[in-house]
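Morning!

This is the sequence you dropped in the shared folder:
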Amino acid sequence: ITHQKEFFNLVKQFDESVTEKELLSCYKYEVDNISFIFANSCFNDNYEFGGIKFHDLEKCLQSCEINNSKILLFHHTVFSMDENDKAPIRNAAKLLGFIEEYRIKAVFHGHTHVRSAIPVGNNCCELIGSGALFSRGHADVNSQFTITQYEKGIIKNVSNFRFRKDDEKWHKDELISTKLQNQFSGNDFHTV
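The structure's back. Tokens below.
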């Protein structure tokens, strides 16, 4: 998450109790049995390299409702996405440990603005790259956005929409498309 003032003003529209200090570290918003955890990976609004305050992230994850699905969002990628990318999260091994331990369902990230969905870990957490809707005047960055369908703890569909200047059209790429049958939910067979 970068452009912190803009993000703070956006979140204030949904949660008037949020403080700027929370957003500079780790912020949680819970709705419909989902915990959205926003971790600031841009220290001092510097997006040149990625880093997370793991102590704050762990406190935030521990405070989530126990049965909630957890979705993590931050600016930087978890892994380097190309040979010139110097900005993935530092200490990604620790982050991957948190993803496993807290059974995080998905991680949404930006920075390189690649259209990707990479499953990691035993829980198959999806690392989902999403783009910038407004490219802020960068000639080499297409405007894009991602729509995710999430039901009963399962990512059913992730679609990326990208505007290409060469043909002046929006293009849709399916990053994940799950056609599951016999969906069950619950923590044990008694609640299925």
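Headline: The mean pLDDT is 80.

More detail when I'm at my desk.
O.
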